[in-house]
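Progress report, Aim 2. The chain analyzed during this reporting quarter is listed below.
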Amino acid sequence: MEKKDRLLASTLKTLAYSQIFSFPLTKKELYQRLITPPPASFSCFEKKLRIFVNQKKVTALQGYYFLPGNKKTAAKRITLTKNWKSKYQLAKKAAHFLAQIPEVFFVGLTGTLALGIAKPQDDLDLMIITAPNTLWLTRLKIYFQLKTKGKKENLRARKPKSKKTNNQLCLNLFLDASNLALEPKQQNLFTAYQIAFLKPLINKHQAYEQFLAANSWTKNFLPNAFSAPNLAGCRSGNLRGFLAMASCKVEGKNITSLLCYFLQRFYMRGKPKAKKITLTQAFFHPQNQSAKTLKRFKALTLKKSYHFLPRKHGG
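Predicted structure tokens for the chain:
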């Protein structure tokens, strides 16, 4: 496949993925999000994009780019952007509130709010990295802090199955600094997007940089999205917290955190099932959004009307 065709295929695939979230992209956003593109500078991409628009393979409106036949998404994004600022300010307030706990190394914004859009009823999805071997102790401290002092700050954790989601804190992802690398079965396009456009709010001890370094596989999907952080000298964070906790040398907070782990696992019996819970990683997602999103993406890219994969000559 020629370089031009590969760039077109990458552009259309990227717009198809953004269409799932009704999120048309600016020129710069489109370049950053290109899915496995051929090597191309931004200026080269700009020239090609103009050609794609002239050929009506891509539609441009009000500075946004999207697949033909989806003009309503541009207006929708403009509307959703208006709801974002107040929620983002509340998320920053929550992050600084949680950062008072010494074991909280990192707080980041995930989900659609990290993209700069929000619905009025949206909650605030937060990812938290804790000090090594303290995940479950730190999680307990966080909920205690929110329970005792959070109401005064208008900060509330979302409860399982609660219908009231507006501005609630959804603490759906915890990682221990001793184990930041995601498992191979989690390494897909959906997760790569979540990592690439995660919005750091609090970052202590280079936790964010170490997280990116531990998950460098994301560059295989989105090579243009990871040019900012300087990861030189950062550790990969691939040590197994379980080994440290289970060894005979475990002391202090490690033992306390291990006890907190078992207590919280016991408490969570019968609650909505989590995607993954271990001593060093906790993903609280009752529904597997990754599988659903990738299934929709596959269905879109198979539509013949979009011609996502240009035909090879002679084939």
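The CA atoms of residues 205 and 287 lie 32 Å apart. Confidence is low (pLDDT under 50) at residues 229-251, 311-315. These observations will guide the mutagenesis work planned for the next reporting period.
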